[in-house]
Amino acid sequence: MNYSFFDFLNLCGGLGLFLFGMKMMSESLQKVAGSRMRKVLATMTRNRFMGVMSGLLITSVIQSSSATTVMVVSFVNAGLLTLCEAISVIMGANIGTTVTAWLVSLVGFKFSISDIAVPAIGLAIPLLFSKRDERKSFGELLVGFALLFIGLDFLKNSVPDINSNPAMLEFLKQYNGSDFGSILLFVLIGTVLTIIMQSSSATMAITLVIMNNGWISLDVAAAMVLGENIGTTITANLAAIPANTTAKRAALSHTLFNVFGVTWVLIFFHPFCDLVEWIVSLGGSIDPDPLYSLSMFHSLFNTINVLIMIWFVKIYEKVVCFLIKPRKGEDENEFKLKYITSNILSMGELSLLEADKEIAHFAERTQKMLFKVERFVMDDYKAKDRSDAMKNIESYEQASDEAETAIANYLFEVSYSTVNEQVKKDIRRKLNVVSEIESVADCCFNIAKAAARRNKEKIVFTDEQIHNIQKMFDLTKRQIDSLIQLVNNKNIMQNSDAILSTEKTVNTLRYKAKQLSINNVREGNYSYLSGTYYMDIMEENERLSDCVEKVAKEYLIQA
User: CA separation (Å) from 496 to 436, 487, 549, 554?
Assistant: First the structure.
Protein backbone atom coordinates (compact mmCIF):
# COMPACT_ATOMS: atom_id res chain seq x y z
CA MET A 1 0.00 0.00 0.00
CA ASN A 2 1.45 3.41 -0.96
CA TYR A 3 -1.38 5.69 0.12
CA SER A 4 -0.12 7.86 2.99
CA PHE A 5 -1.78 9.97 5.65
CA PHE A 6 -0.50 13.05 3.80
CA ASP A 7 -2.40 11.89 0.70
CA PHE A 8 -5.52 11.58 2.84
CA LEU A 9 -5.05 15.14 4.12
CA ASN A 10 -4.73 16.29 0.49
CA LEU A 11 -8.01 14.55 -0.22
CA CYS A 12 -9.71 16.32 2.72
CA GLY A 13 -8.18 19.64 1.69
CA GLY A 14 -9.37 19.22 -1.89
CA LEU A 15 -12.87 18.49 -0.64
CA GLY A 16 -12.69 21.54 1.61
CA LEU A 17 -11.62 23.77 -1.29
CA PHE A 18 -14.44 22.38 -3.43
CA LEU A 19 -17.02 23.03 -0.72
CA PHE A 20 -15.68 26.51 0.01
CA GLY A 21 -15.59 27.37 -3.69
CA MET A 22 -19.17 26.16 -4.12
CA LYS A 23 -20.28 28.18 -1.09
CA MET A 24 -18.48 31.30 -2.31
CA MET A 25 -19.96 30.97 -5.80
CA SER A 26 -23.45 30.48 -4.42
CA GLU A 27 -23.29 33.41 -2.00
CA SER A 28 -21.81 35.83 -4.55
CA LEU A 29 -24.46 34.89 -7.09
CA GLN A 30 -27.12 35.45 -4.44
CA LYS A 31 -25.72 38.94 -3.82
CA VAL A 32 -25.70 39.74 -7.52
CA ALA A 33 -29.09 38.22 -8.27
CA GLY A 34 -30.87 38.65 -4.91
CA SER A 35 -33.42 41.23 -6.03
CA ARG A 36 -33.98 39.37 -9.29
CA MET A 37 -34.65 36.11 -7.42
CA ARG A 38 -37.20 37.95 -5.32
CA LYS A 39 -38.97 39.15 -8.46
CA VAL A 40 -38.80 35.69 -10.04
CA LEU A 41 -40.45 34.09 -7.00
CA ALA A 42 -43.07 36.85 -6.88
CA THR A 43 -44.06 36.57 -10.55
CA MET A 44 -43.29 32.97 -11.53
CA THR A 45 -45.10 30.94 -8.88
CA ARG A 46 -48.68 31.67 -9.93
CA ASN A 47 -49.15 28.09 -11.09
CA ARG A 48 -47.30 24.84 -10.53
CA PHE A 49 -45.57 24.83 -13.91
CA MET A 50 -44.17 28.33 -13.50
CA GLY A 51 -43.17 27.41 -9.96
CA VAL A 52 -41.11 24.50 -11.30
CA MET A 53 -39.48 26.81 -13.85
CA SER A 54 -38.60 29.37 -11.17
CA GLY A 55 -37.04 26.67 -8.96
CA LEU A 56 -35.07 25.32 -11.90
CA LEU A 57 -33.88 28.80 -12.91
CA ILE A 58 -32.84 29.93 -9.43
CA THR A 59 -31.01 26.69 -8.60
CA SER A 60 -29.21 26.70 -11.95
CA VAL A 61 -28.01 30.24 -11.20
CA ILE A 62 -26.95 29.86 -7.56
CA GLN A 63 -25.73 26.26 -8.01
CA SER A 64 -27.26 25.01 -4.77
CA SER A 65 -30.55 23.21 -4.37
CA SER A 66 -30.06 23.38 -0.60
CA ALA A 67 -29.89 27.18 -0.75
CA THR A 68 -33.02 27.27 -2.91
CA THR A 69 -35.03 24.97 -0.66
CA VAL A 70 -33.93 26.80 2.49
CA MET A 71 -34.91 30.06 0.79
CA VAL A 72 -38.29 28.58 -0.13
CA VAL A 73 -38.87 27.37 3.44
CA SER A 74 -37.95 30.84 4.64
CA PHE A 75 -40.39 32.49 2.23
CA VAL A 76 -43.15 30.12 3.30
CA ASN A 77 -42.34 30.95 6.92
CA ALA A 78 -42.67 34.64 6.06
CA GLY A 79 -45.97 34.12 4.27
CA LEU A 80 -44.50 35.08 0.88
CA LEU A 81 -45.23 31.71 -0.73
CA THR A 82 -48.11 29.33 -0.25
CA LEU A 83 -47.43 25.67 0.47
CA CYS A 84 -48.50 24.66 -3.06
CA GLU A 85 -46.21 27.24 -4.62
CA ALA A 86 -43.32 26.12 -2.43
CA ILE A 87 -43.74 22.46 -3.42
CA SER A 88 -43.59 23.31 -7.13
CA VAL A 89 -40.48 25.50 -6.66
CA ILE A 90 -38.76 22.68 -4.75
CA MET A 91 -39.54 20.30 -7.62
CA GLY A 92 -37.85 22.69 -10.03
CA ALA A 93 -34.85 22.99 -7.71
CA ASN A 94 -34.32 19.24 -8.00
CA ILE A 95 -33.86 19.60 -11.75
CA GLY A 96 -31.74 22.74 -11.42
CA THR A 97 -29.22 21.04 -9.14
CA THR A 98 -28.30 18.58 -11.92
CA VAL A 99 -26.48 21.42 -13.69
CA THR A 100 -23.61 21.00 -11.20
CA ALA A 101 -23.02 17.40 -12.26
CA TRP A 102 -22.87 18.38 -15.92
CA LEU A 103 -20.53 21.28 -15.14
CA VAL A 104 -18.13 18.97 -13.31
CA SER A 105 -18.39 16.21 -15.96
CA LEU A 106 -17.98 18.47 -18.99
CA VAL A 107 -15.36 20.86 -17.60
CA GLY A 108 -13.78 19.39 -14.49
CA PHE A 109 -12.64 16.11 -16.05
CA LYS A 110 -12.32 16.89 -19.75
CA PHE A 111 -10.24 20.05 -19.47
CA SER A 112 -7.44 21.17 -17.19
CA ILE A 113 -9.55 23.95 -15.73
CA SER A 114 -7.10 24.37 -12.84
CA ASP A 115 -4.64 25.89 -15.35
CA ILE A 116 -6.88 28.94 -15.72
CA ALA A 117 -8.13 28.92 -12.12
CA VAL A 118 -5.18 30.84 -10.68
CA PRO A 119 -5.27 33.48 -13.46
CA ALA A 120 -9.02 33.81 -12.73
CA ILE A 121 -8.16 34.67 -9.12
CA GLY A 122 -5.66 37.20 -10.45
CA LEU A 123 -8.44 38.83 -12.50
CA ALA A 124 -10.66 38.84 -9.43
CA ILE A 125 -8.24 40.70 -7.13
CA PRO A 126 -8.92 44.22 -8.52
CA LEU A 127 -12.66 43.54 -8.42
CA LEU A 128 -12.49 42.51 -4.76
CA PHE A 129 -11.10 45.94 -3.87
CA SER A 130 -13.68 47.81 -5.93
CA LYS A 131 -16.03 50.23 -4.18
CA ARG A 132 -18.98 48.96 -6.22
CA ASP A 133 -20.81 46.04 -4.58
CA GLU A 134 -21.61 44.39 -7.91
CA ARG A 135 -17.94 44.27 -8.88
CA LYS A 136 -16.95 42.86 -5.49
CA SER A 137 -19.57 40.13 -5.82
CA PHE A 138 -18.40 39.30 -9.34
CA GLY A 139 -14.82 39.08 -8.03
CA GLU A 140 -15.99 36.68 -5.30
CA LEU A 141 -17.77 34.68 -8.01
CA LEU A 142 -14.51 34.29 -9.95
CA VAL A 143 -12.59 33.26 -6.83
CA GLY A 144 -15.30 30.75 -5.89
CA PHE A 145 -15.29 29.30 -9.41
CA ALA A 146 -11.50 28.96 -9.31
CA LEU A 147 -11.41 27.38 -5.86
CA LEU A 148 -14.13 24.92 -6.82
CA PHE A 149 -12.11 23.51 -9.71
CA ILE A 150 -8.78 23.70 -7.87
CA GLY A 151 -10.46 21.62 -5.16
CA LEU A 152 -11.79 19.21 -7.78
CA ASP A 153 -8.28 18.86 -9.21
CA PHE A 154 -6.93 17.99 -5.74
CA LEU A 155 -9.75 15.48 -5.32
CA LYS A 156 -8.93 13.76 -8.61
CA ASN A 157 -5.22 13.53 -7.77
CA SER A 158 -5.67 12.55 -4.11
CA VAL A 159 -8.18 9.72 -4.52
CA PRO A 160 -6.19 6.45 -4.48
CA ASP A 161 -6.12 4.43 -7.67
CA ILE A 162 -7.81 1.05 -7.16
CA ASN A 163 -5.11 -0.79 -9.13
CA SER A 164 -2.31 0.66 -6.98
CA ASN A 165 -4.07 -0.05 -3.68
CA PRO A 166 -5.80 -3.42 -4.07
CA ALA A 167 -5.62 -4.35 -0.38
CA MET A 168 -7.28 -1.15 0.87
CA LEU A 169 -10.02 -1.13 -1.75
CA GLU A 170 -10.61 -4.85 -2.23
CA PHE A 171 -13.84 -4.71 -0.23
CA LEU A 172 -15.44 -2.46 -2.85
CA LYS A 173 -15.21 -5.09 -5.57
CA GLN A 174 -17.79 -7.31 -3.91
CA TYR A 175 -20.34 -4.47 -4.21
CA ASN A 176 -19.82 -3.83 -7.90
CA GLY A 177 -22.28 -6.51 -8.83
CA SER A 178 -25.91 -6.05 -9.68
CA ASP A 179 -27.53 -7.44 -6.52
CA PHE A 180 -30.22 -5.30 -4.92
CA GLY A 181 -28.53 -5.34 -1.50
CA SER A 182 -25.45 -3.57 -2.87
CA ILE A 183 -27.65 -0.92 -4.47
CA LEU A 184 -29.48 -0.24 -1.20
CA LEU A 185 -26.17 -0.06 0.69
CA PHE A 186 -24.85 2.65 -1.61
CA VAL A 187 -28.13 4.53 -1.49
CA LEU A 188 -27.56 4.67 2.27
CA ILE A 189 -23.90 5.71 1.82
CA GLY A 190 -24.92 8.54 -0.54
CA THR A 191 -27.55 9.70 1.95
CA VAL A 192 -25.18 9.71 4.92
CA LEU A 193 -22.37 11.47 3.02
CA THR A 194 -24.73 14.23 1.88
CA ILE A 195 -26.13 14.69 5.37
CA ILE A 196 -22.59 15.00 6.75
CA MET A 197 -21.38 17.44 4.11
CA GLN A 198 -24.68 19.33 3.74
CA SER A 199 -24.08 19.55 -0.01
CA SER A 200 -25.36 17.16 -2.65
CA SER A 201 -23.12 18.93 -5.18
CA ALA A 202 -20.01 17.98 -3.19
CA THR A 203 -21.18 14.40 -2.80
CA MET A 204 -21.94 14.28 -6.52
CA ALA A 205 -18.41 15.48 -7.29
CA ILE A 206 -16.93 12.80 -5.04
CA THR A 207 -19.09 10.16 -6.74
CA LEU A 208 -17.90 11.31 -10.17
CA VAL A 209 -14.26 11.26 -9.01
CA ILE A 210 -14.31 7.76 -7.53
CA MET A 211 -16.20 6.39 -10.52
CA ASN A 212 -13.69 8.03 -12.86
CA ASN A 213 -10.88 6.36 -10.86
CA GLY A 214 -12.44 2.93 -11.29
CA TRP A 215 -13.67 2.39 -7.74
CA ILE A 216 -17.29 1.76 -8.62
CA SER A 217 -19.49 0.95 -11.59
CA LEU A 218 -22.27 3.11 -13.00
CA ASP A 219 -24.91 1.09 -11.12
CA VAL A 220 -23.27 1.73 -7.75
CA ALA A 221 -22.61 5.41 -8.57
CA ALA A 222 -26.25 5.83 -9.61
CA ALA A 223 -27.33 4.29 -6.31
CA MET A 224 -25.19 6.87 -4.48
CA VAL A 225 -26.85 9.64 -6.50
CA LEU A 226 -30.25 8.39 -5.35
CA GLY A 227 -29.04 8.56 -1.75
CA GLU A 228 -27.75 12.07 -2.33
CA ASN A 229 -31.23 13.12 -3.41
CA ILE A 230 -32.58 11.97 -0.05
CA GLY A 231 -29.68 13.39 1.99
CA THR A 232 -29.98 16.87 0.49
CA THR A 233 -33.45 17.28 2.01
CA ILE A 234 -32.00 17.37 5.52
CA THR A 235 -30.84 21.00 5.09
CA ALA A 236 -34.34 22.36 4.58
CA ASN A 237 -35.71 20.22 7.41
CA LEU A 238 -33.05 21.54 9.79
CA ALA A 239 -33.86 25.10 8.71
CA ALA A 240 -37.55 24.47 9.37
CA ILE A 241 -37.09 23.25 12.95
CA PRO A 242 -37.63 26.69 14.51
CA ALA A 243 -40.04 27.83 11.78
CA ASN A 244 -43.83 27.79 11.69
CA THR A 245 -46.01 24.83 10.76
CA THR A 246 -46.36 25.75 7.08
CA ALA A 247 -42.57 25.99 6.67
CA LYS A 248 -42.16 22.56 8.29
CA ARG A 249 -44.71 21.18 5.82
CA ALA A 250 -42.77 22.66 2.88
CA ALA A 251 -39.55 21.02 4.09
CA LEU A 252 -41.30 17.67 4.61
CA SER A 253 -42.79 17.85 1.11
CA HIS A 254 -39.22 18.02 -0.25
CA THR A 255 -38.30 14.85 1.62
CA LEU A 256 -41.44 12.98 0.53
CA PHE A 257 -40.97 14.05 -3.08
CA ASN A 258 -37.37 12.80 -3.20
CA VAL A 259 -38.12 9.58 -1.30
CA PHE A 260 -40.95 8.80 -3.73
CA GLY A 261 -38.63 9.42 -6.68
CA VAL A 262 -35.94 7.14 -5.28
CA THR A 263 -38.54 4.43 -4.60
CA TRP A 264 -39.88 4.19 -8.14
CA VAL A 265 -36.38 4.35 -9.67
CA LEU A 266 -35.23 1.49 -7.43
CA ILE A 267 -38.13 -0.63 -8.70
CA PHE A 268 -36.95 -0.11 -12.31
CA PHE A 269 -33.30 0.46 -11.43
CA HIS A 270 -31.39 -1.69 -13.89
CA PRO A 271 -33.67 -1.03 -16.90
CA PHE A 272 -33.43 2.67 -16.09
CA CYS A 273 -29.62 2.54 -16.01
CA ASP A 274 -29.66 0.66 -19.34
CA LEU A 275 -31.90 3.39 -20.80
CA VAL A 276 -29.47 6.07 -19.64
CA GLU A 277 -26.47 4.30 -21.21
CA TRP A 278 -28.44 3.84 -24.44
CA ILE A 279 -29.20 7.57 -24.58
CA VAL A 280 -25.59 8.59 -23.85
CA SER A 281 -24.27 6.11 -26.42
CA LEU A 282 -26.63 7.66 -29.01
CA GLY A 283 -28.53 4.44 -29.44
CA GLY A 284 -25.46 2.21 -29.21
CA SER A 285 -23.46 3.97 -31.93
CA ILE A 286 -20.65 5.08 -29.58
CA ASP A 287 -19.18 3.90 -26.29
CA PRO A 288 -20.96 5.71 -23.43
CA ASP A 289 -18.80 7.96 -21.27
CA PRO A 290 -19.42 6.87 -17.63
CA LEU A 291 -19.25 10.50 -16.38
CA TYR A 292 -21.86 11.62 -18.88
CA SER A 293 -23.94 8.54 -18.08
CA LEU A 294 -24.03 9.40 -14.37
CA SER A 295 -24.89 13.05 -15.10
CA MET A 296 -27.62 11.92 -17.49
CA PHE A 297 -28.95 9.52 -14.84
CA HIS A 298 -29.15 12.41 -12.36
CA SER A 299 -30.93 14.72 -14.82
CA LEU A 300 -33.30 12.13 -16.29
CA PHE A 301 -34.32 10.79 -12.89
CA ASN A 302 -35.16 14.22 -11.49
CA THR A 303 -36.89 15.41 -14.66
CA ILE A 304 -39.14 12.34 -14.93
CA ASN A 305 -39.90 12.54 -11.21
CA VAL A 306 -41.08 16.13 -11.62
CA LEU A 307 -43.12 15.30 -14.73
CA ILE A 308 -44.91 12.61 -12.75
CA MET A 309 -45.40 14.41 -9.46
CA ILE A 310 -46.31 17.86 -10.76
CA TRP A 311 -49.85 16.57 -11.22
CA PHE A 312 -50.07 15.58 -7.56
CA VAL A 313 -49.04 18.83 -5.85
CA LYS A 314 -52.44 19.18 -4.17
CA ILE A 315 -52.20 15.62 -2.87
CA TYR A 316 -48.71 16.35 -1.48
CA GLU A 317 -50.15 19.39 0.25
CA LYS A 318 -52.91 17.32 1.88
CA VAL A 319 -50.46 14.62 2.97
CA VAL A 320 -48.00 17.00 4.67
CA CYS A 321 -50.89 18.92 6.28
CA PHE A 322 -52.15 15.61 7.67
CA LEU A 323 -48.70 14.56 8.91
CA ILE A 324 -47.80 17.91 10.52
CA LYS A 325 -50.53 19.39 12.66
CA PRO A 326 -50.41 22.99 13.94
CA ARG A 327 -48.77 23.23 17.33
CA LYS A 328 -51.17 23.79 20.17
CA GLY A 329 -51.46 27.47 20.89
CA GLU A 330 -49.34 28.47 17.88
CA ASP A 331 -51.89 30.92 16.54
CA GLU A 332 -52.87 32.23 19.97
CA ASN A 333 -49.33 33.10 21.01
CA GLU A 334 -49.27 36.86 20.72
CA PHE A 335 -45.64 37.28 21.60
CA LYS A 336 -43.72 34.67 19.64
CA LEU A 337 -41.82 35.91 16.60
CA LYS A 338 -43.89 34.74 13.69
CA TYR A 339 -41.66 35.12 10.65
CA ILE A 340 -38.05 35.48 11.76
CA THR A 341 -36.28 32.29 12.77
CA SER A 342 -32.63 31.96 13.68
CA ASN A 343 -30.28 30.89 10.87
CA ILE A 344 -33.09 30.02 8.50
CA LEU A 345 -31.70 32.24 5.79
CA SER A 346 -28.53 34.22 5.26
CA MET A 347 -28.96 35.85 1.89
CA GLY A 348 -28.64 39.56 2.46
CA GLU A 349 -31.50 41.38 0.78
CA LEU A 350 -33.69 38.27 0.68
CA SER A 351 -33.48 38.05 4.47
CA LEU A 352 -35.03 41.51 4.72
CA LEU A 353 -38.30 40.08 3.42
CA GLU A 354 -38.69 38.18 6.68
CA ALA A 355 -37.79 41.30 8.64
CA ASP A 356 -40.44 43.32 6.78
CA LYS A 357 -43.12 40.78 7.63
CA GLU A 358 -42.00 40.61 11.27
CA ILE A 359 -41.98 44.41 11.63
CA ALA A 360 -45.52 44.53 10.24
CA HIS A 361 -46.53 41.82 12.72
CA PHE A 362 -44.86 43.82 15.51
CA ALA A 363 -46.88 46.91 14.54
CA GLU A 364 -50.11 44.88 14.54
CA ARG A 365 -49.40 43.55 18.05
CA THR A 366 -48.73 47.10 19.22
CA GLN A 367 -52.07 48.15 17.75
CA LYS A 368 -53.78 45.44 19.81
CA MET A 369 -51.98 46.76 22.87
CA LEU A 370 -53.32 50.25 22.19
CA PHE A 371 -56.87 48.88 21.93
CA LYS A 372 -56.48 47.16 25.30
CA VAL A 373 -55.05 50.32 26.87
CA GLU A 374 -57.96 52.36 25.54
CA ARG A 375 -60.44 49.96 27.13
CA PHE A 376 -58.52 50.12 30.40
CA VAL A 377 -58.47 53.94 30.46
CA MET A 378 -62.10 54.28 29.46
CA ASP A 379 -63.21 51.98 32.33
CA ASP A 380 -64.53 49.23 30.04
CA TYR A 381 -63.29 46.63 32.53
CA LYS A 382 -65.10 45.74 35.72
CA ALA A 383 -63.24 46.60 38.91
CA LYS A 384 -62.42 42.94 39.63
CA ASP A 385 -60.94 42.48 36.11
CA ARG A 386 -58.72 45.57 36.12
CA SER A 387 -55.77 43.84 37.78
CA ASP A 388 -55.73 41.06 35.16
CA ALA A 389 -56.13 43.61 32.38
CA MET A 390 -53.13 45.56 33.66
CA LYS A 391 -51.03 42.39 33.87
CA ASN A 392 -52.00 41.58 30.29
CA ILE A 393 -50.94 45.05 29.14
CA GLU A 394 -47.66 44.67 31.02
CA SER A 395 -47.03 41.33 29.29
CA TYR A 396 -47.53 43.09 25.95
CA GLU A 397 -44.92 45.68 26.92
CA GLN A 398 -42.41 43.00 27.95
CA ALA A 399 -43.06 41.11 24.72
CA SER A 400 -42.53 44.33 22.81
CA ASP A 401 -39.06 44.73 24.37
CA GLU A 402 -38.21 41.14 23.44
CA ALA A 403 -39.50 41.56 19.89
CA GLU A 404 -37.46 44.73 19.38
CA THR A 405 -34.29 42.96 20.56
CA ALA A 406 -34.91 39.87 18.43
CA ILE A 407 -35.66 41.83 15.25
CA ALA A 408 -32.69 44.15 15.82
CA ASN A 409 -30.31 41.22 16.38
CA TYR A 410 -31.58 39.58 13.21
CA LEU A 411 -31.06 42.78 11.21
CA PHE A 412 -27.52 43.16 12.60
CA GLU A 413 -26.73 39.59 11.51
CA VAL A 414 -27.96 40.39 8.01
CA SER A 415 -25.88 43.58 7.91
CA TYR A 416 -22.75 41.58 8.83
CA SER A 417 -23.36 39.16 5.96
CA THR A 418 -23.68 41.77 3.20
CA VAL A 419 -21.42 44.39 1.63
CA ASN A 420 -24.26 46.04 -0.27
CA GLU A 421 -24.49 49.64 0.96
CA GLN A 422 -28.09 50.00 -0.19
CA VAL A 423 -29.06 46.96 1.88
CA LYS A 424 -27.19 48.35 4.90
CA LYS A 425 -28.99 51.68 4.50
CA ASP A 426 -32.32 49.86 4.39
CA ILE A 427 -31.34 47.93 7.54
CA ARG A 428 -30.59 51.16 9.39
CA ARG A 429 -34.04 52.48 8.45
CA LYS A 430 -35.70 49.29 9.65
CA LEU A 431 -33.81 49.47 12.95
CA ASN A 432 -35.11 53.02 13.47
CA VAL A 433 -38.66 51.89 12.63
CA VAL A 434 -38.47 48.98 15.09
CA SER A 435 -37.17 51.27 17.82
CA GLU A 436 -40.04 53.72 17.30
CA ILE A 437 -42.68 50.97 17.31
CA GLU A 438 -41.27 49.74 20.62
CA SER A 439 -41.49 53.31 21.89
CA VAL A 440 -45.16 53.32 20.93
CA ALA A 441 -45.61 50.26 23.15
CA ASP A 442 -43.78 52.06 25.97
CA CYS A 443 -46.17 55.01 25.63
CA CYS A 444 -49.14 52.63 25.74
CA PHE A 445 -47.80 51.11 28.94
CA ASN A 446 -47.23 54.54 30.49
CA ILE A 447 -50.83 55.49 29.66
CA ALA A 448 -52.06 52.32 31.36
CA LYS A 449 -49.92 53.03 34.44
CA ALA A 450 -51.38 56.56 34.70
CA ALA A 451 -54.89 55.10 34.49
CA ALA A 452 -54.01 52.48 37.13
CA ARG A 453 -52.82 55.20 39.52
CA ARG A 454 -56.02 57.13 38.87
CA ASN A 455 -58.07 54.01 39.69
CA LYS A 456 -56.10 53.47 42.88
CA GLU A 457 -56.86 57.04 43.95
CA LYS A 458 -60.51 56.48 43.00
CA ILE A 459 -60.51 59.59 40.82
CA VAL A 460 -63.35 59.93 38.32
CA PHE A 461 -62.76 62.00 35.19
CA THR A 462 -65.29 64.62 34.10
CA ASP A 463 -67.25 64.25 30.88
CA GLU A 464 -65.00 66.84 29.25
CA GLN A 465 -61.87 64.92 30.21
CA ILE A 466 -63.32 61.62 28.99
CA HIS A 467 -64.41 63.26 25.71
CA ASN A 468 -60.92 64.67 25.04
CA ILE A 469 -59.19 61.40 25.99
CA GLN A 470 -61.46 59.47 23.61
CA LYS A 471 -60.79 62.02 20.88
CA MET A 472 -57.05 61.62 21.44
CA PHE A 473 -57.30 57.82 21.28
CA ASP A 474 -59.27 58.07 18.02
CA LEU A 475 -56.48 60.17 16.52
CA THR A 476 -53.64 57.88 17.65
CA LYS A 477 -55.54 54.78 16.53
CA ARG A 478 -55.92 56.41 13.12
CA GLN A 479 -52.16 56.95 13.04
CA ILE A 480 -51.47 53.34 13.99
CA ASP A 481 -53.74 52.19 11.14
CA SER A 482 -51.66 54.26 8.73
CA LEU A 483 -48.46 52.96 10.36
CA ILE A 484 -49.45 49.36 9.65
CA GLN A 485 -50.12 50.26 6.02
CA LEU A 486 -46.69 51.91 5.87
CA VAL A 487 -44.73 48.95 7.22
CA ASN A 488 -46.58 46.79 4.71
CA ASN A 489 -45.27 49.19 2.03
CA LYS A 490 -48.75 50.27 0.93
CA ASN A 491 -49.43 53.82 -0.33
CA ILE A 492 -46.33 55.23 1.35
CA MET A 493 -46.90 58.88 0.40
CA GLN A 494 -50.61 58.84 1.23
CA ASN A 495 -50.22 57.14 4.62
CA SER A 496 -47.18 59.23 5.57
CA ASP A 497 -49.10 62.43 4.82
CA ALA A 498 -52.04 61.15 6.88
CA ILE A 499 -49.76 60.46 9.86
CA LEU A 500 -48.07 63.86 9.67
CA SER A 501 -51.40 65.65 9.35
CA THR A 502 -52.89 63.75 12.30
CA GLU A 503 -49.80 64.47 14.40
CA LYS A 504 -50.44 68.21 14.04
CA THR A 505 -54.03 67.70 15.18
CA VAL A 506 -52.79 65.69 18.18
CA ASN A 507 -50.38 68.47 19.15
CA THR A 508 -53.16 71.06 18.95
CA LEU A 509 -55.52 68.91 21.02
CA ARG A 510 -52.88 68.28 23.68
CA TYR A 511 -52.04 72.01 23.90
CA LYS A 512 -55.69 73.06 24.25
CA ALA A 513 -56.35 70.29 26.80
CA LYS A 514 -53.43 71.51 28.92
CA GLN A 515 -54.68 75.10 28.92
CA LEU A 516 -58.24 74.00 29.78
CA SER A 517 -56.97 71.67 32.52
CA ILE A 518 -55.00 74.50 34.17
CA ASN A 519 -58.11 76.71 34.12
CA ASN A 520 -60.40 73.94 35.44
CA VAL A 521 -58.05 73.11 38.32
CA ARG A 522 -57.75 76.83 39.14
CA GLU A 523 -61.55 77.21 39.09
CA GLY A 524 -62.05 74.05 41.20
CA ASN A 525 -63.91 72.06 38.54
CA TYR A 526 -61.69 69.08 39.39
CA SER A 527 -58.70 68.39 41.60
CA TYR A 528 -55.05 68.98 40.80
CA LEU A 529 -54.44 65.19 41.00
CA SER A 530 -57.22 64.57 38.49
CA GLY A 531 -55.67 67.13 36.16
CA THR A 532 -52.25 65.50 36.56
CA TYR A 533 -53.44 61.99 35.62
CA TYR A 534 -55.54 63.44 32.81
CA MET A 535 -52.57 65.28 31.29
CA ASP A 536 -50.29 62.25 31.79
CA ILE A 537 -52.64 60.28 29.53
CA MET A 538 -52.93 63.10 26.99
CA GLU A 539 -49.18 63.75 26.87
CA GLU A 540 -48.24 60.07 26.53
CA ASN A 541 -50.66 59.89 23.61
CA GLU A 542 -48.90 62.90 22.12
CA ARG A 543 -45.50 61.18 22.58
CA LEU A 544 -46.97 58.08 20.94
CA SER A 545 -48.02 60.25 18.00
CA ASP A 546 -44.48 61.66 17.76
CA CYS A 547 -43.05 58.13 17.52
CA VAL A 548 -45.40 57.25 14.67
CA GLU A 549 -44.49 60.53 12.97
CA LYS A 550 -40.79 59.51 13.05
CA VAL A 551 -41.66 56.23 11.32
CA ALA A 552 -43.52 58.14 8.60
CA LYS A 553 -40.48 60.37 8.05
CA GLU A 554 -38.25 57.29 7.68
CA TYR A 555 -40.49 56.01 4.89
CA LEU A 556 -40.66 59.43 3.25
CA ILE A 557 -36.84 59.53 3.12
CA GLN A 558 -36.88 56.13 1.40
CA ALA A 559 -39.57 57.21 -1.05
Answer: 15, 11, 8, 9
